[in-house]
């Protein structure tokens, strides 16, 4: 097991400390509109892509940056069967383009053809559940992530993958639901299957939702406040129509609502205008187990929310 620092104790790790501080999950999903999933049968180093040969790792990282793809290593929960062939996955999370494609990965070099669009892969209608268990990056991810991966794998073995670092170690256990790019944080094993079953119904689970990586943090914040006001938690509701950056880190976001009205005074199909502001708070804490203190965290504040 990749436990990271040998002195690590779960009760004093970054995720436990974040729990005690009641750090907000709202609008903390990192940008990730497209993903490259690389099945790996070897141990994961702290920097995941360095599991590839150095020149190849640099090329894959460069190509991913150029086309806006987030690469992660993935593996099945439990003992790895190294005799089984590996796979790659390409996931598009952009609204209206949501798609998962899989293909065989005979060699690591094959990734260059995948990124160049030379191999199409096969479209899958099955969602993908990524659970960060990258202990060499942060011990909290392994300690908290693996029980969640076990719970999901028991119910959905073909959909569930452990994955390398995805951001937000202090929110472990972290789960990403693809292809909609839904980031969930502080997921307990007892609620892991709930995320999947609700997704099958086309719904998000708001109290564990960090946001969708398909959208910028101000949009994630606007969607959160709209759901908090009673608007429907359906996955495809509250899509951004426009984002206007105002002075002093304020943002005005126009969201489209298409679901049956939840608030009594809302229209079944219309728009919601949300104005939020972003603030950086300095805290005397480490945001990762290997981090330093003090640190800064971003917080969003709601100013106005109006429904047309």
Automatic annotation (TrEMBL):
CDD domains: TRX_Fd_Sucrase
Gene3D superfamilies in the record: Glutaredoxin
Pfam family, one: Suc_Fer-like
InterPro entries, sorted: Aim32/Apd1-like, Thioredoxin-like_sf
Name recorded for this polypeptide: Sucrase/ferredoxin-like protein
